[in-house]
Design goal:
This protein is mostly helical and 259 residues long. It is 85% helix and 0% strand. The termini are far apart. Mean pLDDT is 88; it is low at 1-6.
Length: 259
Amino acid sequence: MISALKTPFHYLAELFILQWEILYSLVRGKFRGKQLLEQMAEIGFRSQPVVIITGAFTGAVLAAQSLFQFKLVSMETVGGGFVSTSMFRELGPTITALMLAGRVGSSMAAVIGTMKVTEQIDALRSMSVHPIDYLVTPRFLAIVISTPLLIAASCGFANFSSYIVGVYIFNIEPPYWMHHVQDFTGYAEISVAMIKGLVFGILIVLISCHQGLKASNGAVGVGQGTTKAMVLSSLAVLIVNFFLSLLMQKIFPAEFIET
């Protein structure tokens, strides 16, 4: 049993060491603006379509399903507030992070893992270029900057699509819909979404880059590392989200905002 517990604790220790090396690189390492811009384009800009489409249809189906139930008790007008709160506090950050884990996390693991097994990382060291400083830190900064912005886009389009469903399909008056969106969405909801986005982004980049740096056994090892990066990042997001939700409710309790 003790040996079985060593593996997860050893893995968490390696992630902690990697995080410490990234922080050290941020303070003492060389700033690489070109790599940062490239990663922001890859992580942020190129992820927009999948994040926007996912957020829009999540908001639409959430609005439809909630309105089916609210209609039974003649409370359809609160559907907008329900969708907005749900997206900002839970679904927006979580779904966006899961999309990034699949698209960006696997890509990070594959690129860094390929460099590892082809000895390109050793070549960087031979040229006095630290791999963390060159490969990991720009990705860390890029995902920390991009994830909250992607979550904002996801939640924004989710609210827009839910408005279309509520107003044009369920025939709810637009002023009533928007009034409840404003009543139930405030500083607390936006803060929760941004904090979750920051935490989820850090989890994805740590797990994915760690899998890439630890890759071995040629192409087979790279493929295994890529799969593990996606699976572990997704699981970490879902598990941490539960505890973050409990913590955020204490710090930013959900409130009715009278406008």
